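Q: I have 66 residues here and want to know how they pack in 3D. Can you give me a structure?
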Amino acid sequence: MSTQDTVQAGAAEHSSTPVTLRLTAEEIEKAQFLARRDHRTRAAFIRVMFLRGLASYEKELETATA
């Protein structure tokens, strides 16, 4: 799934719920650096990473059960 696909998939939803997660200081710094590089907010970057990871995980589940 491309970044554009993940952004468009989320654009259809009109509301969202804040979610709290724990990251180390190093993980936060890395997310902030990469978010700036992609011209995104840190929250938007983390959401895109979640969506990519979720798609990858679901694909793994499909191949494991096939």
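Q: Anything worth noting?
A: The longest helix spans residues 42-65. The mean pLDDT is 88.
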